[in-house]
Amino acid sequence: MESRSFNVMDDEKLIEVIRNYPVIYKLSDKNYKDNCIKDNVWKEISQSIVKNVNDCKTRWRTIRDSYKKNLKKRRLGTGSAATTKSKYNDDSLSFLDNIENERR
User: Fold this and answer.
1) Which ranges carry the MADF domain (predicted)?
2) Sign of CA dihedral 19, 20, 22, 24
3) Pick from 49, 52, 57, 95: most CB atoms within 10 A?
4) pTM, entire model
5) Distance between CA atoms of 45 and 49, rounded to whole angstroms?
6) What is the pLDDT of residues 20-63, one digit of tens each?
């Protein structure tokens, strides 16, 4: 697999592929804690976008965390610090909006 940095198109493709695998991002998924299944899913994801698994995982965490941070800032409302504009279309990551943020 290629190990080069991600560009915006790579990011968008990664987001679209991950959207189809809730086991990666949805804590309530019955297989969320099954690392064997998740490892296999990450292999499929990496093959579909021709990047190595670790690069995909790292990039996904960065994208997800950035989106969640910006979403939280927007929810604070008026009087809060200015929000930074996400470089991703909010619609492409909106599937994360109703996902639990933290483990219990």
Assistant:
1) 13-101
2) negative
3) 49
4) 0.79
5) 7
6) 999 999 999 999 999 999 999 999 999 999 999 999 999 999 99
